[in-house]
Structure to design on (100 residues):
């Protein structure tokens, strides 16, 4: 059993500036004790011959070759779905009160 006491829960709640009722302190003491016990069980099962990993399967980035082609959008095609444009550029509303 872990050494989580109601006094420790009250202390932690005070550090976090959380106002807990006596019922909440009792409930959290039991919950935190269970969590600490489970973490201890998992820690005991970990062995030195198993490397620490963040993912069970190695992750690698998949890149494609960057090849220049003539298959590009024209200005008209790019602007065709824009809600607002001036014929050569997208128009967007000013944000955060910034005026130009």
């Amino acid at each position: 059993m872990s050494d989580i006491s109601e006094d420790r829960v009250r202390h932690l709640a005070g550090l976090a500036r959380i106002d807990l009722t006596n019922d909440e302190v009792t409930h959290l003491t039991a919950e935190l004790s269970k969590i600490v016990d489970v973490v201890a069980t998992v820690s005991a099962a970990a062995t030195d011959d198993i490397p620490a990993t963040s993912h069970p399967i190695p992750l690698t980035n998949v890149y494609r070759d960057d090849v220049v082609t003539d298959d590009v959008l024209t200005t008209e095609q790019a602007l065709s779905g824009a809600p607002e444009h001036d014929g050569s550029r997208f128009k967007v509303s000013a944000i955060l009160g910034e005026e130009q």
